[in-house]
Specification:
Strand content: 15-25%
Number of helices: 4
Number of strands: 7
Largest sheet: 7 strands, mixed
Helix content: 25-40%
CATH topology: Beta-Lactamase
CATH class: Alpha Beta
Oligomer: single chain
Shape: globular
Amino acid sequence: MPTRDYEQLAKTVHSQLKPGDDRTARMQCVSDAIWEALSGAGVSWGGFYIADEGAPEDQRLILGPRRDKPACSPIGVHGVCGAAYLSKRIQIVRDVRDLGPNYVACDPRDQSEIVIPLFESPDANTGWGVLDLDSFETGAFDETDAAGLVRVLTAAGFHCAAPETATSTTNE
């Protein structure tokens, strides 16, 4: 698998942001940069889901900025994105088949996933959404990706779960 240069990706995101960019503009900047840098490095989809606290649990997360492919929306909190959002912990799924009915399959070719929860402030008390990346390859994401994606999100001015909170789902 090609190398993922998260340090350069974080620099790219930081350099492309403009003073005063709102959350949506920053999410789109991150989505664009991730897609440009990682679509050839094992990432099949990347984007944000934003929480709608007033929605029923099965419709709580609404698709936000993403690149090049549609995705399921709204989605409930029973899947990987919901687990990250509710637990406030990074979720790394090495093989989506391990999740059984708890996997929300937007693209049946996806084999692995990583989800980073996002917060209103550094204290991680109030979540507002997640960054979700998928891959057609089993085992495409690990703790190095979690740390790198946190670096990218931080460069965009977002507060997110610390890499050491990562929870991996694997049958190993």
